[in-house]
Design a protein that fits this description.
Mean pLDDT: 92
Distance between the termini: 12 Å
CATH architecture of the largest domain: Alpha-Beta Complex
Order of helices and strands: EHEHEHEEHEEEEEEHHEHHH
Structural class: alpha/beta
Radius of gyration: 19 Å
CATH topology of the largest domain: Spore Coat Polysaccharide Biosynthesis Protein SpsA, Chain A
Number of domains: 2
CATH class of the largest domain: Alpha Beta
Helix content: 25-40%
Low-confidence stretches: 312-316
Largest sheet: 10 strands, mixed
């Protein structure tokens, strides 16, 4: 039976972590290990998780390493065939892991998969069916806001959301850069888009498994941009640039995609200048990080070239 580990990163997650862990404990597929990395919470998260010391490997960080850093830290603790990257505000159905592993075991090139995530307080509405990618290279939550009844068929997708994503360990090792699966320069937000794009460029596929159900408890997505914290908007904005620099390639499609990208980013910048000037504070970091992102781009391009020249044998 393929082995599975669960990796959770917490930050002041006291109100969510209980339901999350209890759902993991009830999985019909055996879980080899559960790793919880706490990013310097100052609520009761640590105290709650520590009561399950026999079931959960708990590590408390002195500083907040972000989602990317925390998940990389957790993943390094695993030796399993698959890793479930899970947000503490997600509650899984008992068969979530089993349904996904069954699909991934049938096709070794599926490097990541996710299930049907609905809003916890309104299961009739989809939260996410994974990640989609628009022609202007804007990643988005596939199916977000749509009736969940419309998403009862499994299908191939661009990538998986980090909220409840199952990754094949062979893929994690294959696409990791300098020991990092998630790019820690992203800190949080869109690191899953970056991973999905990188994985796809290196020959891995992603899949939405409609029979695997989960509920997401996040609330800020329901309103307009004003309900999204400035911290989130800043990281989302700057990480979009990082994702483009690292992963966008030039070819025949560039005649369509590049103008769309430039137009999209110009409109976005104009909106920010007029309506959200606080986001402009991230530009010094974007410019400072550009040389490092170009180095990572070079690594990806070299890896793609190597993978095309030497097709590796990928074992399920």
């Amino acid at each position: 039976m393929p082995t599975v580990s669960v990796c959770i990163v917490t930050f002041n997650s006291e109100k969510d972590i209980e339901d999350c862990l209890k759902a993991v404990f009830k999985q019909s597929h055996p879980i080899e290990s559960i790793i919880v990395i706490d990013n310097a919470s100052f609520d009761g998260t640590a105290k709650y998780v520590q009561q399950y010391a026999e079931k959960v490997h708990f590590i408390a960080n002195d500083v907040n390493n972000g989602f990317a850093g925390g998940q990389n830290q957790a993943i390094r603790q695993t030796l399993s065939d698959y890793v479930l990257v899970l947000n503490p505000d997600v509650t899984l159905s008992p068969s979530y892991v089993a349904e996904i592993i069954e699909v991934m075991e049938r096709e070794p090139r599926i490097g990541s998969a996710t299930g049907k995530l609905v809003f916890a307080d309104n299961p009739a509405i989809m939260d996410s069916a994974g990640i989609g990618m628009k022609r202007n290279r804007q990643g988005y939550d596939l199916a977000a806001g749509e009736p969940s009844a419309n998403w009862n068929e499994s299908r191939s997708i661009f990538g998986v959301s980090g909220a409840a994503a199952v990754y094949r360990s062979a893929m994690i090792k294959d696409i990791a850069m300098e020991g990092q699966f998630f790019d820690e320069d992203f800190f949080a937000y869109k690191e899953d888009v970056d991973v999905a794009w990188r994985a796809q460029k290196l020959g891995w596929t992603s899949y939405y498994v409609a029979t695997a159900h989960a509920a997401h408890h996040r609330g800020w997505k329901k309103g307009g941009r004003g309900n999204i914290p400035l911290f989130v908007r800043r990281h989302s904005y700057q990480n979009q640039f990082f994702t483009l620099v690292k992963n966008e390639t030039f070819g025949w499609h560039s005649f369509v995609t590049i103008p769309l990208i430039l137009a999209s980013e110009a409109v976005k910048l104009g909106y920010i200048v007029l309506r959200e000037p606080g986001l402009l504070a991230c530009w010094p970091f974007i410019l400072k990080s550009l040389p490092r992102m170009l180095q990572k781009r070079s690594w990806i391009l070299n890896k793609v070239h190597q993978s095309k020249s030497h097709k590796p044998q990928i074992q399920p």
